[in-house]
Automatic annotation (TrEMBL):
The organism's place on the tree of life at top rank: Eukaryota
Protein known as: Uncharacterized protein
Matches recorded under Pfam families: Chromo, SNF2-rel_dom
Coiled coil: none
Amino acid sequence: MFGCLLFRSSYLHCKWATLEELEKDPRISQKIKRFRNKQAQMKHIFTEPDEDLFNPDYVEVDRILEVAHTKDSDTGEEVTHYLVKWCSLPYEESTWELEEDVDPGKIKEFESLLIPPEIKHVERPASEFWQKLEKSRDYKNSNQLREYQLEGMNWLLFNWYNRKNCILADEMGLGKTIQSITFLSEIFLMDIHGPFLIIAPLSTITNWEREFRTWTEMNAIVYHGSQISRQMIQQYEMVYRDAQGNPLPGIFKFHVVITTFEMILADCPELKKIQWRCVVIDEAHRLKNRNCKLLEGLKLMALEHKVLLTGTPLQNSVEELFSLLNFLEPQQFPSETAFLEEFGDLKTEEQVPAGPRGEAQGLAGPRAVGVGPWGWGPGAAEAGSSSSSLQAKTLPESTLGLALETGPALPGASKALEKEAAWETENGDGLEPW
């Protein structure tokens, strides 16, 4: 007996067939030959065969893309089919399935997206409306942020209110993804429903999609795959259409697009023509080379607010830092030569200008970027440590914010920042919240 996947059918309809049944199709002989060759090769590999003939995800509904109503030619009754994208399979392997074979919960999700939302543009609130969240709200599935994640999310939100593009530089494993997702969720709750863009390595986009589903009600889609898959995403997932099938301008089905660096490098015009309200770039140290093609592609996109995430140190390279700052704020940092003349020799704590209390100037100074003494790497755990990759330095009159945190060491860093903020408030210059 052979386990068979029928042409243009889903794994839901796999069946067992005898050799005699299969040989009725003259096209099957080559497939059987390839299967037997593969089986013979597997005998030389000392591994236990999988109990499952295929990945169980392949029979789990991921998303519903379309619905079709037809009439049964025999009974005259209406029959409903849904175009189903299956988990762990690309869009191009989507199949039409009968209603009774589809998860009712997924049908409900699909139906909730059928009606186009009202067209309205909500402006970003003024900075004076920012309020710090003292405790985590309950997100989807009753998820809550940890204390240090809440602080990071508050910081991201503060910079957004203040029109400051920023870098969140936590060590790996401390929840930069969750902080970013809840940050976008807070914006979403202000009736700014995107569009938001996540750019991440291919190996992490599944995790990004899963966390969006776990923490929020936002409709996040993954834009990646073959040309056929991307065409299906554009047709079914990105825009609403009128009765004639024409796209309705300015109305998107999605709230979040998750894509890869490769898609940006591939010069996707469908992404570049969208006015993105916020972009979050994971593993942003990939932008440290100012002449890389990825940066060139990003600079052609309309990005209202930019957040960079990194857990990788800059390794004492001020040139790499300039590349990131120039992308975030090209008007503030237009010249690499001028930047290196002023900051290129920054290597030791003694070179850092003193703050108003005689200590190294930190990142909470008014209208300043802090290239802080904590957070660019594991060796930078203590605020003020001389072993950090980049010591504290105040950059002039920037609209940029830089969060440099290390998780376990964050509470100590927070106390130092809170003391600085309190001092500035007492002296009439408390423009930063920390």
